Amino acid sequence: MHVVQDLIGQYGYIALYVLLALGIVGIPVPDELLLTFIGYLASIGMFYYPAAVAVSLMGAMTGMVVSYWVGRSVGKPALRKYGKWIKLTPKRLGTAERWFDRYGPWTVSFGYFIPGIRHLTCYLSGVSGMSQRKYLLFAGVGALVWCLFFITLGYFVGYHFDFA
Fold first, then answer.
1. 161 phi/psi in degrees, rounded to 5
2. CA–CA dist 1, 31 (Å, integer)
3. For 100, which of 66, 104, 112, 152 could close a Cys bridge (C-beta 3.0–4.6 Å)?
4. Amino acid 163: pLDDT
5. Where are the domains positioned within the chain?
6. Number of H helices, E strands in the chain
7. Sign of the CA dihedral running 34, 39, 40, 42
8. Kindly report the CA angle at 17 between 13 and 20, in degrees rounded to 5?
9. pTM of the model
10. pLDDT average per 10 residues of sequence, the chain (164 residues)
11. Is residue 146 a contact partner of residue 112, using CB atoms and an 8 Å limit?
């Protein structure tokens, strides 16, 4: 987390955008802690709350779009070829696709609050062939709620408690 704090301290909003985009793609970035920390920094005046939410949302959406397109372009062929190594047979892949067709959009929205699931749902949306419009709608709503929740949490915790 010290590296993240240093990057945020030195590069501000740019670091926030890049870190969230990389975190959604799957690079190990403590996303929830990052957003809560940004909320705290907003509470002490180092970040502007609306700008922090907007930049966070843009970073998350960038990572989600990249993950979606990776899943859409290389996901299914890779799973068909290498799925047997992770016990994902064609039959299981079909079952997973049918389940994702039915519950996928809601999983994308609520999956943000479950570390690990948030990353998989983006790729699976592309693999399953979910329409880009539907994906962006459900993912965007989920990202907005996720960013607002953790930034607001950090804001109010930072505002009401003196950590000095």
1. -125, 140
2. 10
3. 104
4. 55
5. 2-160
6. 8, 0
7. positive
8. 130
9. 0.85
10. 88 96 91 94 94 97 93 80 72 75 81 78 84 92 95 88 59
11. yes
151: CB partners within 8 A, 6+ apart = 35, 36, 38, 39, 42, 49, 52, 53, 56
Residue pair 68/125 in contact by the 8 Å Cβ criterion: yes
Return the ∠ at Cα 116 (arms to 14 and 69), rounded to 5°. 65
116 token code pair: 């690990």
Query: Cα separation of 114 and 65, whole Å?
Result: 19
Closest CA to 6 of 28, 32, 45, 37: 37
Q: In whole angstroms, what is the distance from residue 104 CA to residue 101 CA? A: 6
Q: Which two tokens stand for residue 48?
A: 């502007």
- Return the biggest CA–CA distance within the chain: 57
Please provide residue 89's backbone torsions phi and psi, each rounded to the nearest 5 degrees: -75, 165
Residue 9 corresponds to which tokens in the numbers above?
A: 């301290």
**Would you call 144 exposed, middle or buried from its count of C-beta atoms within 10 A (0-12, 13-18, 19+)?**
middle
Per DSSP, 129 falls in state T
Q: Residue length, the chain? A: 164
Residue 10 burial (CB < 10 Å; 0-12/13-18/19+)? exposed
